[in-house]
Structure formats: C-alpha cells, structure tokens
Amino acid sequence: MPEVKSMFREVLPKQGQLCVEATPTMVLCKPKLLPLKSVTLDKLEKMQREAQEAFRQQELAQKEQQPQP
C-alpha cells in the first residue's frame, strides 16, 4: 500500500515538557433515587385492600343473617 503524505507534520519539542491533552473519562454523577413503588401501584394496592375489606364485611353480614340451628 503506498504511503500517503499528509499536509501536517508532527512536531515534538527538543527540550522542555511535552503537554498531552487529557482524554475524556467517565464521570459518575449522583444516583437518582427512585421510589420502590410507583404511585399507580400504591393506588391499585389500596383499592384492592378496600375491596377485600368490603368483601369480608359482606361475608360477616351474611353469616349473621343466617339462622342459627
């Protein structure tokens, strides 16, 4: 493969320090706290508890209305 000459040539200093630009690195940011349960899930669980409680109360009322032998 033929070697291609570029317009720019590399220049290194003969004395002194060589400055190298820092390469970009990963930076960790603060973690975002997420709720363990979503608001919708909380509402659904509350509705389910209320429905179960209402069902239990209906069962108790039916048992009380049944005649005792």
UniProtKB/TrEMBL annotation:
<dbReference type="GO" id="GO:0060271">
    <property type="term" value="P:cilium assembly"/>
</dbReference>
<protein>
    <submittedName>
        <fullName>BBSome-interacting protein 1</fullName>
    </submittedName>
</protein>
<feature type="region of interest" description="Disordered">
    <location>
        <begin position="50"/>
        <end position="69"/>
    </location>
</feature>
<dbReference type="InterPro" id="IPR028233">
    <property type="entry name" value="BBIP10"/>
</dbReference>
<dbReference type="GO" id="GO:0097500">
    <property type="term" value="P:receptor localization to non-motile cilium"/>
</dbReference>
<dbReference type="Pfam" id="PF14777">
    <property type="entry name" value="BBIP10"/>
</dbReference>
<feature type="compositionally biased region" description="Low complexity">
    <location>
        <begin position="54"/>
        <end position="69"/>
    </location>
</feature>
<dbReference type="GO" id="GO:0034464">
    <property type="term" value="C:BBSome"/>
</dbReference>
